[in-house]
Amino acid sequence: MKKIFINLPLFILLIITTPGCQQKGTKSMSNDNIEIATLAGGCFWCVEAVYERVEGVTDVISGYAGGHLEEPTYKDVSRGDTGHAEVCQIFFDIKVINYDEILQVFWQAHDPTTLNRQGNDYGPQYRSAIYYHNEKQKTSAEAAIKDAEKMFEKPITTEVEQLKIFYEAEVYHQDYFRNNPNVPYCAFVIQPKIKKLKKQGTIFD
């Protein structure tokens, strides 16, 4: 547990927070125009790199959702037995981009037809999933899957589940592609995807 002490004129306020529940960018929620989408589309390094380049997205946080183990670490999730998926929480300005458009990018950012796998990354932690925050998002997600079925020859494997809790991933996973552009995974997996989506006009530099 992390303890944060804030000195105030009349008293000391003690705030105890759980690291896994903390969200970089929570401050944005004070803005009524900001909404959150929580998506799993393989390695969160890839998903994060894509959405950080989508117009209207204000923040992207890598983490874990959909599992049963409390406070999971990357090592825990990588075993494939905690039930978690690698996910990204995407903060976006609804005046610039809406939830349906966020999902349109989702289908282009990964292959939703490969069960528990994206490329050479395999295991349940790499599954395709949409974790909705409210009923409106659930309805949009279900409709988006029906539309996506027309785009792909193989069946869509994307799960649609209510988000129960999101655990923020370790610091070194955040902004991974931006901070490590030359590591082999980034150079040979993420960079070609970014280049392709830029060419399609889906994302910007």
Automatic annotation (TrEMBL):
Catalytic reactions of this protein: L-methionyl-[protein] + [thioredoxin]-disulfide + H2O = L-methionyl-(S)-S-oxide-[protein] + [thioredoxin]-dithiol; [thioredoxin]-disulfide + L-methionine + H2O = L-methionine (S)-S-oxide + [thioredoxin]-dithiol
Classification via SUPFAM superfamilies: Peptide methionine sulfoxide reductase (SSF55068)
Domain of life of the native organism: Archaea
Pfam entry (one): PMSR
Keyword annotations of the record: Oxidoreductase
Domain Peptide methionine sulphoxide reductase MsrA: 37-186
Listed EC numbers: 1.8.4.11
Active-site feature positions: 43
GO terms assigned for molecular function: L-methionine:thioredoxin-disulfide S-oxidoreductase activity; peptide-methionine (S)-S-oxide reductase activity
Protein's UniProt keywords contain Cell membrane: no
Xref: InterPro entries: Met_Sox_Rdtase_MsrA_dom, Met_Sox_Rdtase_MsrA_sf
Function, as annotated: Has an important function as a repair enzyme for proteins that have been inactivated by oxidation. Catalyzes the reversible oxidation-reduction of methionine sulfoxide in proteins to methionine.
Family named by the database record: Belongs to the MsrA Met sulfoxide reductase family.
Full protein name: Peptide methionine sulfoxide reductase MsrA
Species annotation: uncultured marine group II/III euryarchaeote KM3_36_F10
